[in-house]
Write a structure and sequence with these properties.
This protein is mainly alpha-helical. Helices cover 64% and strands 0% of the residues. The chain has a domain of 128 residues. α4 crosses α8 and α7 crosses α8.
């Protein structure tokens, strides 16, 4: 798939390369999308190991937890979007369905962090946590796309961190103090 792209690769070619029969393929997978889904599931497991073991480290604010999750996501999204080989391997419809998805482990952790902030009063509860997640993802996606358009001329996570402080202050927190939100 990496050589000729997703669309040009047949299930028969996948089976030949993996040295399995087409029948055996269909015992485990229903389509090429299922193969890519499994690849992503394995990658998500790896990404989960890179995240802190608990949602919040001791003494860490909800803001810092969200900031760390967003930076982790931006690196993954940025590496996909800036690599000319990956769009051939993961077609855009697949990427958006699985990477920018409310079913991804990243989304679940982001939503949990926001909900925790809403319960402890550090984040406004006027907007549902899920809606805030989607707003953050669209915001982060814009930063990553700008980074790509500018040919990676700035350090992605440092810029995202500075913009997130602005974003949080304007939209989501009742008493958000920029000076107290340090890593």
């Amino acid at each position: 798939m990496k050589k000729q792209g997703y669309d040009a690769t047949s299930i028969r070619e996948i089976c030949e390369k993996a040295d399995v029969s087409v029948g055996a393929f269909y015992l485990y997978f229903g389509s090429k999308d299922d193969v890519l889904s499994e690849m992503l599931r394995i990658q998500w497991k790896k990404d989960e190991r890179d995240l802190p073991p608990s949602l919040m480290q001791s003494g860490e604010s909800v803001y810092v937890a969200v900031e760390n999750l967003m930076c982790h996501w931006a690196k993954s999204f940025g590496s996909y979007a800036s690599d000319p080989e990956k769009p051939r391997l993961f077609p855009p419809h697949f990427f958006h369905k699985h990477i920018i998805s409310s079913k991804s482990p990243f989304f679940a952790r982001l939503e949990a962090a926001i909900a925790l902030g809403q319960r402890d009063g550090s984040l406004s509860s006027e907007i549902p946590a899920r809606e805030i997640c989607w707003k953050l993802i669209r915001f982060g996606r814009g930063i990553v796309q700008d980074w790509i358009l500018r040919e990676q001329e700035f350090e992605l996570t440092a810029f995202l961190r500075s913009e997130l402080r602005f974003f949080f202050r304007l939209f989501y927190s009742r008493n958000f103090d920029l000076t107290s939100q340090q890593n």
